[in-house]
Design a protein that fits this description.
The complex is a heterodimer of chains A (289) and B (349). With 289 residues, chain A is an all-alpha fold. Chain A has 12 helices and 2 strands, in the order H-H-H-H-E-E-H-H-H-H-H-H-H-H. Chain B contains 14 helices and 6 strands. The chains are: A mainly alpha (289), B mainly alpha (349). At the A-B interface, helix 4, helix 9 and helix 11 of A face helix 5, helix 6, helix 11 and helix 13 of B.
Chain lengths: 289, 349
Amino acid sequence: MDLVVAVALQLAYGIANLALISVGLAIIFGMMRVINLAHGEFLMLGGYTVVVTTNAGVNLWLAVFVLAPLVVGIVGVLVERILIRRLYGRMIDTLLATWGLSLLLIGLVTSIFGASTATTISPPFGTIQIGRFSSSGYELFLIGVTMALALAIWAVLRFTRLGLVARGTMQNAEMASALGVSTSRIYMITFGLGAAVTGLAGGLLAPITGVLPTIGATYIAKAFITVISGGSAILAGTAAGSVLLGGIQGVFTFLTGPTFGEVALLIAAIVLLRLMPRGITGRFFRKSL
Amino acid sequence: MTGGADTIRAMRPAFLWAALAAIFALAAPQMLALFAIINLTTAIALAILALSLALIWGYGGILCFGQVAFFGLGAYAYTIAAVNFGGSTWAILVAVLVASAVAAALGYFMFYGRLSDVYLGVITLTFTLILFSVMRRTSGPDWKIGKSLLGGFNGISSPPLNLPWNPAVKLFPEHVFYVAMAALILCYLFAAWLVNTHFGRVCVAIRENETRAELLGYDTRAYKLGIFTIGAGIAAIGGVLFSQGIGRITPDVFGLYNAALVIIWVIVGGRGTLAGPVIATFALFYLTSWLGGQQVLNNNLVLGIILIVFVLAVPRGIAPTLLGWWRRGTVRPAAARVRRRRNRAEAAE
């Protein structure tokens, strides 16, 4: 029984972790159909914001929930206005430009903070006992935060005017533009929001992983395949992608160790895309958010 | 159908480049120190990698962000096979076959699933990154293929090349340089030949307009798979030489930084040319080694700026842009003459 609970918790955390690192990317992908290759660096910037500000004496929760999204959100808006805006409609160039941005951000952070780990912070909440097993309280907390975050994004998309206009632009940008919506402004806002959510995710993960200028590379492989397997529906796609791939990774990690967990994840995604080239939500749940 | 004579005629500029490269190969060892020659061997290996991407992206229109995966697989396969066989002759063949087979398998899922460019780029990049994280975990005595340990993040030291079918005679680094130059020239001529054959022209047609090519009756999936597999084989040859240039192969070859480097070489050199990316590789290889030797500017920073500037300002790359200017310079006066004559004729009527 204890084992079942502990394994289920690990599985839930694996899925929540995938959803957390992917959802910001999914917002941008859902809106612009472009993968932001600087996604890992947005996570990294969120982590750095938290580590640097807490070292300067700022409260951890303030740093994680306010400063990290704020800083990375502003970076996102600036990037959209300076770089992405010039490349609307040029998908491949947008990918390449965000890759350039990724290198630029790694270089910039390395120049400022050095290539080694900045001072780390220890995760709050300590450990929780489940019979013979112990689990990190912070991981449980992250599962809760991920669910709350998904709920918040759903509420914004479903009930606000911004959400309505954003959904309209996603479905048919030209039509939205003909009806008087400034699609360029919507793109700017969603890119900024996607970046802010990514910054929050990076900040939340910083106490577990620590930060390095190159830490983005450890996240992006998983985030990318979760988002493209999920398809273009922001929430349903992320949820479907992370449940399926997180589940597969969890099972394989449990059976064979972490090395093949990631390999299984990749193979599952490639086979899935052979069957459903537009991702899960390209085939099922097409009307979902 | 393009005949053999047409293909050869279209290859004239390629023969010129190959001749220049051959002169360079003969002259360089007379002028450079041994260290510089070994360094140059690494650059040549990377140039072959760039050539392979120039072929599949520039001509095949396949957005592969993970070309470095086949390069690294080639290097690993060569090293493991050479350790096991005790010689390099068959190991080189194994390297090319392994990389091509993996590319064919991956390509089948991607092209027959008809994935769009964005998905293709992301899948190939992810493939590379996962190879990176898997190979890093392979340290310890449990991880071995035949006699060769995989070595985790320390990698494996590569056995030197030997004379074909004679493992007793190892090649010295200065000889490996000649082999590398010969490989570069042959791969380049092969690629230049390929893009001028019927197969190559269909690939270019698919790049330009996939639907139209399909309506003309070509199975675009098969052509894409074909050129992708060939590109992986060429990349593997580069990988073999790379393992010779630095003497060992480590998982770092699969890293994000290396994946980005190849893309930058091809972007800077120009898509749709073969010589451009090769020359850009040499130029940027020496730029990054120089940057690595100083403390002021970070390598990533400079490469990031180069990539962004090229995407925004010179999206076609240097070679096609220069070629465009040159053609405008020579062709336009002729066109203007024709237009003047026609105007005069119309006026006379």
